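Table 4 source record.
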Amino acid sequence: MLRRLTGPSAVLAAAVLVVAAVAVAGPAVAAPDAVGTDTPDPGRVPQLVMPGSGEKVPAFQSLDPTHLKALPASKGATGSTLDPAAAAAAGSRLKRADGSAAARPRPKGKSAAVAQSFTCDEFINKDARVGRDESGAQVLRVAYYGDVLCNFYLIEGAGIAAVIDHTPGNAGQFLDIGTDYYFQNYYYGFSQGDFEILGDTDRRARTIEVIEEVYLFSAIPWGPCGPIQGLRYYRCDGVGGNLLHVVVGTGPFQTGLQDPPPLFLGQGQGQGCPVTLSATAKNKRTIANNEHVVDVDFTGTIACSQGLGITGTSEARLVDLSAPLLDIRGGASGANGTSSKTVTYEESEKGGREVKVVYSGRTEAPPGRTWSGCSVTDFQTARYLFTQCQVNGNVVTWQAEAPYPDFVGDGAMLDTGLPDDRGCEIDRALPSVDFTENQLVAKGIGRCNTPLNDIEVTLTMSGSYVDNSGNRIDVVLPSDGEIIGRDTDIDDEFEDGRADAVLKVDCQEGNQQQVDYKLKVRVRFKHPDLPPGSGWPSAAGWEQVLDLPVLPDESVTTMPCVPV
């Protein structure tokens, strides 16, 4: 089962590989199998049984992997060979082995056993393959094998293989440690292992080496360590004694992993986080009293590449430029998601005329990955720009705004087309009823903050009194219904958005009868139709009606005037 190596930046996700094999010479090593769930611990230190004493010792305890230095092999010898003179004197105490139990055949050209010598040779094979998972990220799979094979029976033997890293920044660290072996009265033992590294998020394993440590115990003293094809010595201890300690390695080799390019944010090629945002005015319509209403949809979306372990927070909000501090939030969208909302603006409300969408967030890649910054490569398509982009290692803090017009000098802004509210009202300070020179004068005034071409004020009065006979008499003024004041002159250069309605009534001379009058004032107004192509329906009819509240303390006026 292949074991996935989990460094601080590894992502534990299942992978489907498209494998490009790295050719490895020598006897076949099983190619890395399907992804497994075992997680090796390169920090563990296996205990090897020391031949000759049975004592357990930590593997590779005599090796400093951060400062490996190859030793010269002795000339005239091949592999780990017994002292020739002592071997010859041993006679029948040494038993030859045919090697038939070995898992590997003896390759041609390697230091094979010869009739005149008693030899053990170490052997290492490896298979390193770089593929890509479904997200396009690099995945390295490594399988390795190390053994010792003798042409005679040893009293005892033990060994183990491992992989160390030579990548800058991690040089000398164990990436994986294989199975250990121990045998008695035998001639062969092997160690093997495999692992996986996600190369886009883990900066290790660009250059690695397979090493093997072997302890060999024989009744006959050992001679010097001779050359072994394709391997180098790092330790050769115990020459002239019965226990030989050997550490060999392949030397550093490239695995094929490449440092991944930086991630992009916004628009870009390769891996990263595409960002889109927009604000759109739609559904322009009129409601009761023909008041204009518009909906504004705003959206921010971030869609980071899957399988990379990118995390973060983000949210879009609608900023109202015509009414500061009235921002509308669209909800969190994380590292992958959409933040959006629809806002309805009515003409009588404050704001809603000029808005923009602001999308901001903090996005974090796994350790070992970097960001190229924030970019918009096609402004005509994107219609947004980044207004903030701060990269700190594997974290980018950002903010973008939209929509931008063709010219970006004035910043992002959407004109919703909602017309300004006219703010029409009855002028309560001016409606009045006066009695002067035997005449009753009533006035009603309506006006709007913005001049209009069409505003209308109507005025009516009603009253009652008790005559000398005790009868209640009702009075309605004017007798023909109402007094109307309008401002509808579209050519009026001095249009001020105001209309007055004035009622004048002559009183009966000499009649001092007190009459209780009520004044009613109504203002009606509408906007002019918006220009064709504005997207608004025609505003038919009056837009709004306002009435002076009928309250006794401000509407009942007692005057000594009985209408003629």
